[in-house]
């Protein structure tokens, strides 16, 4: 039987950490305002629309009745989008890079925000709210959410910065195995700390992954950089596969309660909540953006709101009474996940071709290519962008002398990056290349020494 604690302790942290660690931070932070608006405020809007709709429809005896906190908890968990299929199609068709980053960036933060909102609703359920007015309940929920969100983000950021300083001043590059072990410890540390002080471990580990990728990663040896990338990708892929396998097996693993009216209205509310999230916020953002979000892009963003493994795990994690209510929410969540993945996900490619969103191909010939994620080409073992090979002189020439930097990017390049990362000397760069060459030659030598290794060696000697 799939246990929610196993999901939150073992399967979810590698997925969330890898999302932050493999993120292309330049493109992400260029659109950070839009992504934050969609992922935080948009998710909250969707949660309130779905939760409020379920509550009022229940009061009108149209569907099964749920109280306010249970309705909001369901609205929060079902608002977690997982557009994996859409992102894969975007990369295959080379759609507009801004559209790709908006959908990709929203999906990264959206999972953590949805989990925090669901935990907020559960926290209110555990308290006795009978003598508290509606406004007081709302203010308590808002305060709890802000504490969870910003407190967890600050803890994850602080842990990532500490890891950067530790690996900058303690040189472990000659022992990659120990260096890799330290990275794994720092990767899981914020999750345990956050859960220990009643914050969100998922939010903490997400921000820790982003910070460690931006600073700590460049203090590692080239061998550990590659090892860290490939290990995280492999573990995250296996965890996602296990979760979706559990999702398929769950259809037969526990009793269901199916109510056609509840399922239909929930699907309608999910689609409507997504529309209320995307379209008004996109029109608002267009007043401040140079690259406008077109109506076609808005429609694709709305259509790409697929639901995945996180809503399913959260539905099992809800402690609802009686048992029939939990079975109803679990069954409805599974149906919505399958509906969005099969119908919406399967229709994304023909819809994009029909709406001609591939117009970015022409612009890509004349503009600099934008890599939206370091996981875009999974087959590449060595990625030059993610290998730290800038010497002190190259760093100054490439970044600090640029005149177009401003805001946080200027502060990061001028002060934060030099403080938290090690600038390589020519000697360090030469040693790293020798280390990589030695490792590669050793690997080839071990491959040759297979069942017929001795014969191959004799032929080489001849």
Summarize the SSE layout with pairings.
Blueprint: H1 4-21, H2 25-30, H3 32-59, H4 68-77, H5 84-93, H6 97-126, H7 134-169, H8 176-196, H9 201-214, H10 222-253, H11 260-285, H12 295-303, H13 309-317, H14 323-355, H15 360-366, H16 392-400, H17 408-420, H18 426-448, H19 453-461
Question: Could you characterize what this model shows?
Answer:
It contains 19 helices and no strands. The chain folds into 2 domains: about 5-365, Up-down Bundle (Na+/H+ antiporter like fold); about 390-460, no CATH class. The termini are far apart. It is mostly helical and about 450 residues long.
Based on CA inertia axes, which overall geometry fits?
Answer: globular
Major sheet attributes: none
Number of helices: 19
CATH class of the largest domain: Mainly Alpha
Structural class given helices, strands, pairing?
A: mainly alpha
> SSE order, as H and E?
HHHHHHHHHHHHHHHHHHH
Q: How many domains?
A: 2
In total, the number of strands is 0
Main attributes of the structure:
462 residues; mainly alpha; Na+/H+ antiporter like fold; 19 helices; globular
In short:
InterPro entries: Cation/H_exchanger_CPA1, Cation/H_exchanger_TM, NaH_exchanger. By secondary structure, the protein is mainly alpha-helical. The chain has helices at residues 4-21, 25-30, 32-59, 68-77, 84-93, 97-126, 134-169, 176-196, 201-214, 222-253, 260-285, 295-303, 309-317, 323-355, 360-366, 392-400, 408-420, 426-448, 453-461.
């Amino acid at each position: 039987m799939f246990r929610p604690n196993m999901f939150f302790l073992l399967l979810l942290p590698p997925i969330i950490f890898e999302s932050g660690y493999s993120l292309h931070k330049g493109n992400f932070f260029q659109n950070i305002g839009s992504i934050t608006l969609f992922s935080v405020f948009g998710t909250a809007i969707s949660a309130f629309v779905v939760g409020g709709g379920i509550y009022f429809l229940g009061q009108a005896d149209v569907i099964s009745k749920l109280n306010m906190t249970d309705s909001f908890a369901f609205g929060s968990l079902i608002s977690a989008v997982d557009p994996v299929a859409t992102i894969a199609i975007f990369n295959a068709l080379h759609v507009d890079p801004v559209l790709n980053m908006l959908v990709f960036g929203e999906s990264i933060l959206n999972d953590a925000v949805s989990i925090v909102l669901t935990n907020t609703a559960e926290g209110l359920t555990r308290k006795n709210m009978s003598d508290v007015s509606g406004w007081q309940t709302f203010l308590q929920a808002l305060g709890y959410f802000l504490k969870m969100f910003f407190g967890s983000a600050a803890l994850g950021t602080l842990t990532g910065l500490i890891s950067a300083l530790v690996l900058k001043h303690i040189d472990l590059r000659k022992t990659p195995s120990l260096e890799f072990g330290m990275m794994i410890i720092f990767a899981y540390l914020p999750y345990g700390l956050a859960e220990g002080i009643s914050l969100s471990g998922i939010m903490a580990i997400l921000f820790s992954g982003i910070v460690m990728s931006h600073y700590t990663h460049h203090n590692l040896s080239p061998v550990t950089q590659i090892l860290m990338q490939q290990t995280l990708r492999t573990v995250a892929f296996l965890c996602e596969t296990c979760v979706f396998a559990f999702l398929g097996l769950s259809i037969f693993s526990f009793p269901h309660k199916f109510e056609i009216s509840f399922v239909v209205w929930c699907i309608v509310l999910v689609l409507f909540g997504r529309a209320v999230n995307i379209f008004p916020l996109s029109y608002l953002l267009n007043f401040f953006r140079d690259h406008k979000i077109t109506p076609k892009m808005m429609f694709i963003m709305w259509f790409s709101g697929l639901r995945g493994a996180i809503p399913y795990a959260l539905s099992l994690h809800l402690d609802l009474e009686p048992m029939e209510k939990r079975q109803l929410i679990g069954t409805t969540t599974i149906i919505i996940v399958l509906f969005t993945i099969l119908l919406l996900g399967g229709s994304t490619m023909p819809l994009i071709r029909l709406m001609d969103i591939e117009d970015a191909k022409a612009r890509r010939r004349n503009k600099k290519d934008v890599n939206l994620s370091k996981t875009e080409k999974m087959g590449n073992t060595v990625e030059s962008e993610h290998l730290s090979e800038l010497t002190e002189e190259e760093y100054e020439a490439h970044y600090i002398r640029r005149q177009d930097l401003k805001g946080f990017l200027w502060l990061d390049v001028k002060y934060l990056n030099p403080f938290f990362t090690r600038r390589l000397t020519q000697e360090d760069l030469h040693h790293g290349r020798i280390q990589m060459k030695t490792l590669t030659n050793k690997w080839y030598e071990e491959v040759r020494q297979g069942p017929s290794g001795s014969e191959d060696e004799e032929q080489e000697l001849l």
